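ligand=coenzyme A
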Amino acid sequence: MTRASTRTSPPTASTSPARETAGPRGCPTTSPSGSSARTSPSAFATGRSRARTVRAVFAWYGCSSSCNGHWTGATVLRPSDRAPGLLLGDHVLLPPTVELGGNVVIHAGTVIGGEARIQDGAVIGKPIALGPHSGASRDPLPPVELGSGVTVCAGAVVVAGARIGDGAMVGDQAHVRERSVIGAGSVIGRGVAVDNDVRIGARVKIQTGCYITAFSTVEDDVFVAPGVTLTNDNTMGRHGPAHQLRGATLRRACRVGGGAVLTPGVEIGEEAFVAAGAVVIADVPARSVVMGVPARVVRDVPEEDLLERFS
Ligand SMILES: CC(C)(COP(=O)(O)OP(=O)(O)OC[C@H]1O[C@@H](n2cnc3c(N)ncnc32)[C@H](O)[C@@H]1OP(=O)(O)O)[C@@H](O)C(=O)NCCC(=O)NCCS
């Protein structure tokens, strides 16, 4: 048994992304009493609909009205005979169609859509554990939501407060932190680290070993090649509490080549192409190809390479 101290609460405006593209679709499930329940039918639409989802889950479990959608208990884990080595927190919504590997851990309040797959050793809803000097928010987090058909691969960790859209995949040993949102159909590759407060749109591909720094935005249909590093702090920790970290913005359908490094706050324009190994220190205009250290514009992305030619 494991005890954890994280408490959860309904989402607040600060945890609601400005632009959201994915979420658990309604999936009929069977309650302990044999009745059926439905999770939020919308994509990760608004903080309000998310609160409704969480309230519905608590209602399904017969939580008293005083619960009001807030998770206030300690997150105790208990063994379950549903799969070998499975540990479950309280009030987990786990439809019968979810496929589970061995030694999966699912923390309290997690909402999982139908036909999700959770592979060996994955941890869903892990309470945050911040370093003593971390400036990241310590506010209570809502439970994790996994959409229908989501795959969380072996050894992956999804921290409390994250949301993964329908059909998305989180690769082996990948890590998705608190308040981050991953859109429908996106793929987070093996060993990718998605930091806190990241917004990732739909159909995004982030390949093996990337670091997506906190407060970044990755729009729909972006391609991020293996080993790309996004950064958000030019002071490398030498700053006061008022300092704002600046993540990157990757606009729709841009492509970032293997091993590229983006310095804090840069924006890669729509359909732009960053060559392998580039160090991007300034915004990249839409449809430009940039190369080198520091990255310079060398040409435009040709018409025949635009995404619309491939869809
Ligand atoms: C940009 C890229 C496509 C090559 O473009 P290209 O136009 O075919 O390159 P060329 O071979 O014609 O080289 C053109 C010039 O750019 C240089 N160059 C090519 N790629 C470069 C790169 N990544 N960085 C810096 N310079 C590069 C070449 O040395 C050459 O310079 P020169 O004119 O002084 O000789 C390739 O370097 C790249 O980044 N591919 C991305 C691979 C990737 O990350 N895939 C992800 C999935 S695995």
